[in-house]
Amino acid sequence: MFMFAEQLEYDEETVVKLERLNLFLGLFYTPMWMSSTLAADAPANDLQFMKDMMKFKRTDPEIAQAVLQKLENHKWYLTQEVVPFALFGSRLSDKEKQDIAAKLHATEKPDSFRRGKPMFPQVTAKTTLADLVGPESHLLLDTLGIEYDWLLQPVATWPRSDDYSKALEYVSNVKVVNDIAERGVKMMTDFANIITTDSQQKQYLLQTVEYNRERFDSFKKQTLKK
């Protein structure tokens, strides 16, 4: 739209807004979106995105502040529980991974892990992922029954550890919830709109779908014939 602003005869105010939007999309949003499905890179991506917006305030404070406010509600991958995912990603240097590993190894494991919504951390321009490691960061390795010896070894040797490989396989298969959920909601909405646009009928449709999901544990012919 910005490229064809002159042909479309946009007024000056609209052109300026489009230019600001394109700058944000091209420099920040699109690169983040392209790697948004990689759980192992999510902590590093999210932290870098927040830092980028803090710097972007000098260029466009209105957009940067709006994005930062939105990100305050989406810091799931910066919580103590999920930060260790970064140990298995490709975004960090060996030193950054070693810092996280050392902090995790030096942090005492709690007797029990807290339940409920994780606590979102405060992030500044100087925050590192190692700073975000805490007692709850033991959850991943503890749940998988993984030993900690490899954490004290040089990063280059980690792939030789069976424990590291086990954790890597798990993290590599973790689905990034926001992306999957948004696509699922979009698919469900499109499907429902094809069948009916009446709001009451749509509610009946969703209730019927839920009822049948409880009745049948699979979609195989043998199951559906029962």
Write the topology of this structure.
Elements: H1 5-8, H2 12-34, H3 42-56, H4 61-71, H5 94-106, H6 139-144, H7 162-172, H8 177-195, H9 199-215, H10 221-224
How far the N terminus sits from the C terminus, by CA atoms, comes to 55 Å
How many domains make up the coordinates? 2
Rg from alpha-carbon coordinates: 23 Å
Q: Write the element-wise H/E pattern from the N-terminal end onward.
A: HHHHHHHHHH
Structural class: mainly alpha
Fraction in beta strands: under 5%
Number of strands: 0
Low-confidence stretches: none
Mean pLDDT: 82
The quaternary state of the protein chains shown equals: single chain
Biggest sheet descriptor? none
Label this structure with key terms.
single chain; 226 residues; mainly alpha; 2 domains; 10 helices; globular
Give a concise summary.
This protein is mostly helical and 226 residues long. The chain is built from 10 helices and no strands.
Descriptive report:
By secondary structure, this protein is mostly helical. It has two domains: 35-175, no CATH class; 177-224, no CATH class. It is 54% helix and 0% strand. The protein has ten helices and no strands. The longest helix is centred in the first third of the chain and has 23 residues, at 12-34. 19% of the residues are buried.
